[in-house]
Amino acid sequence: MSTPLLELHDLDVEIPLADGTLHAVRGVSLTAYAGQAVGLVGESGSGKSLTLRAAMDLLPVPAKITGGSVVVAGQDVTAMKPAQRRAVVSSQMAMIFQDALTALNPTMRIGDQVAEVPRQRLGMSASAARARALDLLDQVGIRDPEQRYRAFPHELSGGMRQRICIAIALSAEPGLILADEPTTALDVTIQAQVLGVLDGLRQEGVGLVLVTHDLAVVSSTCSELNVMYGGRVVEHGSTDVLLSAPRHPYTAALLRSVPDPDEPVHRLLTIPGAPPDLLQPITGCAFAPRCPAVVERCATERPPLMDVSAATAAGHTSACWRAEEPERWPGSIGEAALGVAEELRVVEERVHR
Ligand SMILES: Nc1ncnc2c1ncn2[C@@H]1O[C@H](COP(=O)(O)OP(=O)(O)OP(=O)(O)O)[C@@H](O)[C@H]1O
């Protein structure tokens, strides 16, 4: 296989705060290739954004990488000097965010914003950069790009603005796009259009790492999933397998919390209990206090990511002591794990309607 565009090895991110150190990302490993979409899912606060930001060298002050490494297109950038690291990272990767409005410059015409990198970083002439920007606007599905070129961000809809952000990200010709909840602020139809743009790019060979809390979004876009909880990846594998045969109770619980489009009143969207306090050391499995399948060992010994592929499919790993016996998990998470296809059907219906 080709060199991965991004590898995270055992990455730790910590944030020193007045009341202690918040250990937000705890030993995360992840690999992304050209032409592949990898999803990072989990509840709010599980460390998804900081993982992406650490990869992109965009951690908010005072957050810091305190362990592990970031390897970009085969080069370990972790110990590089900041200017060199930024040069390598920005030559290979670009990031898009949830809030397209704040990501754009309100006082600058959108075409000029798209032309900025080709002009300044790639050294194109003004007219070549303008032509490139028009191409990019066309590529992300902006109709009538000549006319739109002169618009300001506030004159465009949310979906259009997110397309502009994608065009800006593409303007540096990255191999990999890191997308942090790119469709969360959009309504369902526009969300599907923006995901369609990202999927089109993937088919043209761009790699994608997509952060979302929405399983319907990843099920339609990503071939591989990493499920995060309490700063760790607790399950990894192909999307189809994780959605039909999850081997971590947290993934199963997430599936259970997907709203059913056939029900007039949606099921409760939350998993009972609260995520762990990341300021405190976590003994055992972080999900144990909320886990319906918890056993004594879970409270004292932290389960590493273990290979569970024998029962499901290649590359499937789970950090659960009870991953091999889902038939003994109680109630609804047991049903989800045994692939009562209901869960997958609900997720897929939401995406395809
Ligand atoms: N700048 C910051 N200062 C203090 N704490 C932070 C900061 N950024 C993130 N955190 C904390 O780090 C943890 C992980 O945050 P992160 O944003 O990575 O989670 P997430 O999974 O992306 O959640 P969300 O979907 O809400 O963005 C959370 O507990 C969050 O409160």
Automatic annotation (TrEMBL):
Entry keyword Cell membrane: yes
Keyword Cell membrane in annotation: yes
Stored SMART domains: AAA
GO cellular component terms attached to this protein's record: plasma membrane
Membrane topology: Peripheral membrane protein
Keyword set, alphabetical order: ATP-binding, Cell membrane, Membrane, Nucleotide-binding, Transport
Matching InterPro entries: AAA+_ATPase, ABC_Ni/Peptide_Import, ABC_transporter-like_ATP-bd, ABC_transporter-like_CS, Oligopep_ABC_C, P-loop_NTPase
Domain spans labelled ABC transporter: 6-255
Compartments it resides in: Cell membrane
GO BP term, example: peptide transport
GO molecular function per UniProt: ATP binding; ATP hydrolysis activity
Pfam families recorded: ABC_tran, oligo_HPY
PANTHER family per UniProt: DIPEPTIDE TRANSPORT ATP-BINDING PROTEIN DPPD, OLIGOPEPTIDE TRANSPORT ATP-BINDING PROTEIN APPD
Family: Belongs to the ABC transporter superfamily.
NCBIfam families per the UniProt record, alphabetical: oligo_HPY
Protein name, per record: Oligopeptide/dipeptide ABC transporter ATP-binding protein
Species this chain originates from: Microlunatus antarcticus
